[in-house]
Amino acid sequence: MDLSGTEEQTISNGSNGKNHPQNTYPVFQLQENLSVEQKAFFIKNGFIHFKNFIPKEKVLELLREAENIQDEWVSKDFKTINGVPIKYGTDVNGKKIVQRFAFINQHSPMFANILKDSRLKGLFELIGSADCRIGESEKDGLVFNHYINTVASNYSQLGWHTDALRDIFQGQKIMPMLNVGIHLDNSTTDNGGLRLIPGTHNKGIGTMLFKKIYFISHKPDKKELGLNVEAGDLTVHDGRLWHRVARSPYTGEQSRRRVMYVPIVTGKHLPRDENSKPLFYQRLISITNK
């Protein structure tokens, strides 16, 4: 495969980058159209990593905006957004914080505008369906995850899962989807972070549903791959790909990792609103993965 125009990213294959051999994967630059090499890499592996999707200055603006939204939600003691439970925790200074925002794009023009970036539509090619769309009002919308290890943290990891589970609990057949991550902190594999098992998106429904115990299992997999990301990077993974978020071995400020995710979806339009109820898996997430 011709990887001209890409960088070679050294990553750690396995938990905390220890006791496993080093491995490499190519990283790319996202333009409005994907290259043949980019599409081939994604089709084979089920994920792809793009550098510098947004500049560092924009990252800082988004973090400040998230704090403003957090202060409002905390002061008003919001419990859910469009039926999705809000996950609260405590920061290193004892302050109550939101550790998982759902539909944050509906609470700020700044976050909504991120989803209007024309380069995101280029990712539709990874599915190739005419009805591809950014799920601004579907699934959990634009999610803002804030992982940190403190004594009172409620969100420091996320167990093994595939994103296809949502379709099952919505009573529809599993549809093609992508999960697009925009990373707001530097995160090496030695600090926990995203782990995935390349190629599991192509293994059939049995593997997709039964390879792991959803959300409860955190055990490292010998085939898992950890991603090294910098603030402003963008990653994409297929909704059928098995993945987890590993807990940082550190506590306090060094363990902080913030990342946003938005789905690219197909099929029947299923928007959520203030009358929507939590799905079972959303309740499960809200009480696990501390």
- What CATH architecture would you give? Sandwich
**Alpha-carbon distance between the two ends:** 41 Å
Percent of residues in helical segments? 10-25%
Number of beta strands = 16
Order of helices and strands: EEHEHEEEEHHEEEHEEHEEEEH
Named CATH topology: Jelly Rolls
In terms of DSSP E residues, the strand content is: 15-25%
Mind telling me the C-alpha Rg? 18 Å
Chain-averaged pLDDT? 88
CATH class: Mainly Beta
Number of helices: 7
Please name the defining characteristics of this protein:
290 residues, alpha+beta, Jelly Rolls, 4-stranded antiparallel beta sheet, 21% helix, disordered N terminus
Blueprint of the fold:
Layout: E1 7-12, E2 22-27, H1 36-45, E3 47-50, H2 56-76, E4 80-81, E5 84-85, E6 87-90, E7 96-101, H3 109-114, H4 118-122, E8 133-134, E9 143-147, E10 158-161, H5 165-169, E11 178-183, E12 193-196, H6 205-210, E13 225-226, E14 234-238, E15 243-246, E16 257-265, H7 280-287
Antiparallel strand pairs: 1-2, 3-14, 4-5, 6-7, 7-9, 8-16, 9-16, 10-15, 11-14, 11-16, 12-13, 12-15
Report what the structure shows.
The chain is α+β, with helices and mostly antiparallel strands. It has one domain (44-75, 87-287): Jelly Rolls, CATH 2.60.120.620. The protein is built from 7 helices and 16 strands. The chain has helices at 36-45, 56-76, 109-114, 118-122, 165-169, 205-210, 280-287; strands at 7-12, 22-27, 47-50, 80-81, 84-85, 87-90, 96-101, 133-134, 143-147, 158-161, 178-183, 193-196, 225-226, 234-238, 243-246, 257-265. The strands form 4 sheets. Strands 3, 6, 7, 8, 9, 11, 14 and 16 form an 8-stranded antiparallel beta sheet that branches. Strands 10-15-12-13 form a 4-stranded antiparallel beta sheet, with no helix packed on it. A two-stranded antiparallel ribbon has the order 1-2. A hairpin with a 5-residue loop joins strand 6 (87-90) and strand 7 (96-101). The longest helix has 21 residues, at 56-76.
